[in-house]
Amino acid sequence: MIHHREDARMGLQAPLWRAVTVFRGAALVYATVLMLAGSREHTRPWLGWTVLAAMVAWTVVTGVRYHDPAGRRWTWLTADLAVTLTCLLVSMLVVPAERLAAGGATLPMAWVAGVVLVWALRGGRRAGGIAALIVGAADLFLRGAVTSATVNGTVLLLLAGGVMGYVSRLTDDAEARLQRAVELEAATRERERLARGIHDSVLQVLALVQRRGTELGGEAAELGRLAGEQEAVLRSLVGVHDTAAAAGTADLRLLLGRYGSPRVTVSSPATPVLLPAAVAAEVAAAAGSALDNVTVHGGPAARAWVLVEQEPDAVTVSIRDDGPGIAPGRLAEAAASGRLGVAQSIQGRIRDLGGTVAISGGPGQGTEVELRVPVPRLG
């Protein structure tokens, strides 16, 4: 995985490496023009042309080598720096000393900036700065004194290394975002595949159990009823996924409306109650758990009423039933004994959303569960 990401990063930086090769070619043309113009003043013109030929050959070699991500290794970059310094320092054998001291052109001139750019591209701003300082120190040694030429040249090299290092970091960030986007797309496709599988298999089985249980009657009818409720819950979850994929939001009224039945009355506003799809799914699941508790503790004849209220900054869902109510301390006793239905399925879900849960009611008075969640900013 590490090598894969490194190769992907290098691939994303490929245009920058090509740009450095183009820069070196242009700088080589400039060095050739200066050689033609000043060769009469050179002490060893033949050596100057030899250095220029070496620069041409090295530009071709590095251009080919750096085109392949495998060739962008520090061994090659170190060799690149050594060749650049050699071409620069040979200038003292070709260009008169007094001309160099006065700020005259060296043999490679701007060509030396190429190695600073590749170091910054490969290792970031720090590596680019190191290469710039090394080249600047060699230029200072060559001229023998601190002049405006040495100062300006070093500053420009530092700026070039800093800018290229910054661009290199931007490409790293872009590659990381691209990697996360690819992983998110893969996860989304996997969820869609699972949703299709659920729709084609599990939901059909639950629907069959509901139908056959109703036909058989007795205890089988109760089993069929439970299967039907679970089918509705599962369909709502699959529906939430589809809504989230399409728009990123879901209408809480529609999710809670699936719980409606002859014994469950759902009341909601006339306008959509829009929440982020994941938030709406968790609120609906918590409400479904509360309705399951109504059946478990109140029996199949217990009735429930679900009320949805929308406020500017929050949404409240109240689930009230006419069951036997909750004895004092029963929730704490259930949690202590390991029965965490309310603590996890209801309170845990809403707590994770930054909301609150209020449970009230006493023996013979029914139970009311109030779910209140803040409304996140959409868009």
Would you mind describing this structure in some detail?
The protein is α+β, with helices and mostly antiparallel strands and 379 residues long. It has 2 domains: 178 residues, no CATH class; 127 residues, Heat Shock Protein 90 (2-Layer Sandwich), CATH 3.30.565.10. It is 68% helix and 10% strand. It is built from 14 helices and 7 strands. The protein has a 5-stranded mixed β-sheet. It has a two-stranded antiparallel ribbon with strand order 1-3. β6 and β7 form a beta hairpin. The chain starts with a helix and ends in a 5-residue tail after the last strand. It holds the Pfam family HATPase_c.
Helical content band:
55-70%
- N- to C-terminal separation? 34 Å
- Domain module count: 2
Order of helices and strands: HHHHHHHHHHEHEEHEEHHEE
Number of helices: 14
Measured on Cα atoms, how large is the radius of gyration?
A: 37 Å
The main sheet orders its strands as: 2-4-5-7-6
- Most strands sheet: 5 strands, mixed
* Overall average pLDDT: 80
Taken from the alpha-carbon principal axes, the silhouette is rod-shaped
Count all strands and give the number.
7
Query: What percent strand?
Result: 5-15%
User: How would you describe the oligomerization state of the chains in this entry?
Assistant: single chain
Poorly predicted runs of 5 or more residues: 1-10, 240-246, 336-340
Structural class based on helices, strands and sheet pairing: alpha+beta
Domain DUF5931: 8-176
Keywords: Kinase, Membrane, Transferase, Transmembrane, Transmembrane helix, Two-component regulatory system
Transmembrane segments: 21-40, 46-64, 76-94, 100-120, 151-170
GO molecular function: kinase activity
